[in-house]
Known about the structure:
By secondary structure, chain A is mainly β. Helix content of chain A is 0%, strand content 58%. In chain A, a hairpin with a 6-residue loop joins strand 9 (83-90) and strand 10. Chain B has strands at residues 4-7, 10-13, 19-25, 31-37, 44-51, 54-57, 65-66, 76-78, 87-94, 104-105, 109-113.
Amino acid sequence: KNEVEQSPQNLTAQEGEFITINCSYSVGISALHWLQQHPGGGIVSLFMLSSGKKKHGRLIATINIQEKHSSLHITASHPRDSAVYICAAGGGADGLTFGKGTHLIIQP
Amino acid sequence: EAQVTQNPRYLITVTGKKLTVTCSQNMNHEYMSWYRQDPGLGLRQIYYSMNVEVTDKGDVPEGYKVSRKEKRNFPLILESPSPNQTSLYFCASSPGQGPNQPQHFGDGTRLSIL
């Protein structure tokens, strides 16, 4: 079974800073997802990746299949980016294995 | 608007009193699943369904039941809830099975079992 590790667990930063959240997994996969969960809210899918890099607004997600590692970057961070960010990985017919999440706080 | 709708959003109840959490999606997705989220643990899959009348256990199915009589609905049933089922529950859907599918989640249901 895949093991998915995220770092850091908690991150507090100032508005405008460049943010990086990391995700490592133990077994080869066919897709990796980045999800966002706001306090008291639902879960929103940000990216689904199988290779390379994707960008949406100020968010960038990259994946290195050989190193079994993915990163989520936030440029020009804003307090509204404060949320829990979750990565989830899976391969073949398996379901997704989820990381424990990174709790991000952006202070004004 | 494409969405996954869960009800109720919050529920406090007592041990042993049967309850159902409903989940409905309007995207004609074949695959639906239920997860629970607990502090310090990642999302864990309870049950999933690949299509109407096809359901299977996930990683933590004990104490739960599901049904899939219609494509859009996938209720989660707790026949005799216990305090260890106090958790935040999410329903999710995707067009098909497998990790290469875009995932759509509901807003969550916070259950407290006293």
